[in-house]
Amino acid sequence: MSTSANSPLTSGSPFPIARDMRVAVVRTLWNSHITEALMNGALDTFAAAGIEKTDIDTFEVPGAVELTFAASSLIETGLYDAIVVLGCVIRGGTPHFDYVCQSVTQGITHLNADCDIPVIFGVLTVDNEEQALDRAGGRLGNKGSEAAQTAMLMFDFKEKVAKL
């Protein structure tokens, strides 16, 4: 999604209320000070939309590569209407950044293509910590909040498609 200023919750456009939505939010422990801020943004957004705390389960995994396994495992439970994955990969001096970003991106894309539960990609892939902080509640908003908004929109989308 785009910046928070243009989000469905703040732009004045109609936004579906995620009435009985059950959601899982998974964050990485790597770069935890950033992923915790993303998680808080997501949880605040779900609360503002009226989703009860009891309908949100939170999980933690070591790093971004593990997000795909976590999301796949949560899909298999059949308990959730959407899964939000949150992480932060900061470019370093080796190709590791590229491998991690490619792995998690392809993994989540695969789950979205093959499964019937939307998995929302809330993984920051940035050049430095400042860029991450800007996107985790800083001057560029909170991408965790935007991921939560996306989850609610996809929940609404799925409900509409089911009625066709």
Q: Please state how the strands of the largest beta sheet are arranged side by side.
A: 2-1-3-4
User: For the report, how would you describe the main beta sheet?
Assistant: 4 strands, parallel
CATH superfamily: Lumazine/riboflavin synthase
**Helix and strand element order:** EHEHEHEHEEH
Categorize the overall geometry.
globular
- Structurally, how many domains make up the residues? 1
Q: Roughly how many Å is the radius of gyration?
A: 15 Å
Write out key terms for the chains shown.
four-stranded parallel β-sheet, 164 residues, 5 helices, two-stranded antiparallel ribbon, alpha/beta, globular, single chain, Rossmann fold
Describe the structure.
It is a single chain. The protein is α/β, with parallel strands linked by helices and 164 residues long. The chain has one domain (21-162): Rossmann fold, CATH 3.40.50.960. Helix content is 46%, strand content 21%. It has five helices and six strands, in the order βαβαβαβαββα. It has helices spanning 32-48, 66-77, 96-114, 129-135, 143-162; strands at 23-28, 56-61, 82-90, 119-126, 136-138, 141-142. A four-stranded parallel beta sheet has the order 2-1-3-4, with helices on both faces. The chain has a two-stranded antiparallel ribbon with strand order 5-6. Strand 3, helix 3 and strand 4 form a beta-alpha-beta unit. Helix 1 crosses helix 5. The two termini are 26 Å apart. Mean pLDDT is 90; it is low at 10-15.
